[in-house]
């Protein structure tokens, strides 16, 4: 399988990465090289094989359903590029 | 006084305990070495001298009180991927500009609890994506090794290139690193250092910037096998904050060193004899086989038939997980923000400017293989192939093999800005052909220096072990180290 320019632009938008014509063209070549490389997986017989979900057979650990952390609003916004009174500030999204 | 930076961790530990010198003197020796060398090597992206001296003074107080920890006063470098409270933690990406976490990763917290001293943060490929340390926002690291009689700059490997270079150049006593497809073992092999990627689940991933969560594992890079064993003992733990952290006690890995290899079975996988592999690598492998035989081990030929599919499967699974993990960098909560005409444009502009080429490439691949209509053909198939890769190893171990010996890399270190590699991303990915199988199967793997190539550059061998049998790897790697000796770069910087 290979990707065309329109697909590259669509995927870039899905990934929220702005691309110009030149970027998209370059990426198309790179992506097709990688997709060409992974193409060899189609020769493996995977019938009846379970997909791997965990490398170590272990039950997922669950903690007790209680609040054991929190009250860290200041820490959480401390690295924000733009914040006010412990809120993250973003461009206006609702008219 | 002798140069304190020449000492191994084990030697420094003994001499600190004997009060031959203070932890502050040891830390100052390393800070001096960094100041003299970092301009040339670019191994550190941030040095924390004040914090280091404060930690060293506290270590001296604990040594005086007889309360020294296992790593008391030992100065370490930390890969920029580990969250360190109040200190530069940016995965060497532009998109994390200015990020200083308000918390500490479990692995580094374990090291500080054992008395270690932080010298600073180490350079790496952006978000640990790379095999040459050239994708770092902070520029490439130079390998302390150069070919005999040459002055061309070589890469230290990646992604833990800063860690490997700093250890090889004696700019820290040991370093933390992480390995998703070979990022500990390949740079260790390129710099004549020892690097171990433990079994998935052995070190907590909490507070380590995520790349591919089902493959990422932390481990140490050190100057010899004993030091790697000492460091892993402190780094590893059971951690409630990481649900994939394993509930097993951490063994005293150092105790495993020096035992006989009698009765051990070492597997030699025929599929690792890849096309175009240099004769030198084959010769090194044969030397390794001979050393292990001399040490009492039995050598058996084995087959891991799905080996060649590990790298293509990796280049689906790892980018898929990365595209999901890196969705969090949106210009809102931390790091870089580039304004746009609306919020969606702000996201797109921020990510376009904040991520480098290699990271974008992988996010794009990951987004594509997870997108509607392609999930089954790519991602699901890759995860099935992964099951087959793991099954190959299980079959070998079931047949009585204790560890598997392979080359660590298909070549020695290559040049910075290599044109051929820059032009073809797949060619660069092939660097991990011997290491990536181990991540896909979640197994432990160690790279140990085994010799020099014709141009005088270090080459490494890799040992692969059963889950949570790192002790077997340390013991076997120690036997190789005893036979091969140790390798130091000639100082040019």
UniProtKB/TrEMBL annotation, chain A:
- Keyword list, A-Z: ATP-binding, Ligase, Nucleotide-binding, Protein biosynthesis, Transferase
Cite the InterPro entries for this sequence: Asp/Glu-ADT_sf_sub_c, GatC
Q: What class of enzyme is it?
A: ligase
Keyword Chloroplast part of the UniProt annotation:
no
Instruction: Quote the EC number.
Output: 6.3.5.-
Write down the SUPFAM superfamilies for this protein, in alphabetical order: Glu-tRNAGln amidotransferase C subunit
Q: Which is a GO BP term held by this UniProt record?
A: glutaminyl-tRNAGln biosynthesis via transamidation
Catalytic activity reads: L-glutamyl-tRNA(Gln) + L-glutamine + ATP + H2O = L-glutaminyl-tRNA(Gln) + L-glutamate + ADP + phosphate + H(+); L-aspartyl-tRNA(Asn) + L-glutamine + ATP + H2O = L-asparaginyl-tRNA(Asn) + L-glutamate + ADP + phosphate + 2 H(+)
GO function term, MF aspect, one: glutaminyl-tRNA synthase (glutamine-hydrolyzing) activity
Metal-binding recorded as keyword: no
List the Pfam families hit by this protein, alphabetically. GatC
Classification via NCBIfam families: gatC
Q: How does it assemble?
A: Heterotrimer of A, B and C subunits.
Similarity annotation: Belongs to the GatC family.
Q: What does this protein do?
A: Allows the formation of correctly charged Asn-tRNA(Asn) or Gln-tRNA(Gln) through the transamidation of misacylated Asp-tRNA(Asn) or Glu-tRNA(Gln) in organisms which lack either or both of asparaginyl-tRNA or glutaminyl-tRNA synthetases. The reaction takes place in the presence of glutamine and ATP through an activated phospho-Asp-tRNA(Asn) or phospho-Glu-tRNA(Gln).
| Protein's name in the database | Aspartyl/glutamyl-tRNA(Asn/Gln) amidotransferase subunit C
Organism, by scientific name, is: Xaviernesmea oryzae
Q: Which gene encodes it?
A: gatC
UniProtKB/TrEMBL annotation, chain B:
The entry's active site is 79, 159, 183
GO function terms (MF aspect): ATP binding; glutaminyl-tRNA synthase (glutamine-hydrolyzing) activity; transferase activity
Q: Which UniProt keywords apply?
A: ATP-binding, Ligase, Nucleotide-binding, Protein biosynthesis, Transferase
Where is the signal peptide, in residue numbers? Answer: none
Q: Which domain of life is it from?
A: Bacteria
Oligomer status and interactors: Heterotrimer of A, B and C subunits.
Describe the task this protein carries out. Allows the formation of correctly charged Gln-tRNA(Gln) through the transamidation of misacylated Glu-tRNA(Gln) in organisms which lack glutaminyl-tRNA synthetase. The reaction takes place in the presence of glutamine and ATP through an activated gamma-phospho-Glu-tRNA(Gln). Hydrolyzes indole-3-acetamide (IAM) into indole-3-acetic acid (IAA).
Membrane spanning residue stretches: none
Q: Which InterPro entries match?
A: Amidase, Amidase_CS, Amidase_dom, AS_sf, GatA
- What would be one Pfam family of this protein? Amidase
User: Can the keyword Flavoprotein be found in this entry's annotation?
Assistant: no
Reactions listed under catalytic activity: L-glutamyl-tRNA(Gln) + L-glutamine + ATP + H2O = L-glutaminyl-tRNA(Gln) + L-glutamate + ADP + phosphate + H(+)
HAMAP family from the entry? Answer: GatA (MF_00120)
Protein encoded by which gene: gatA
For this chain, the family text in UniProt reads:
Belongs to the amidase family. GatA subfamily.
Return one Gene Ontology term, BP aspect.
translation
Q: Which GO terms describe its cellular component?
A: glutamyl-tRNA(Gln) amidotransferase complex
Give its E.C. classification number. 6.3.5.7
Broadest EC class assigned to this enzyme: ligase
- What is the name listed in the Swiss-Prot or TrEMBL entry for this protein? Glutamyl-tRNA(Gln) amidotransferase subunit A
Boundaries of each Amidase domain copy?
Answer: 25-473
What PROSITE patterns would the database entry show?
Answer: AMIDASES
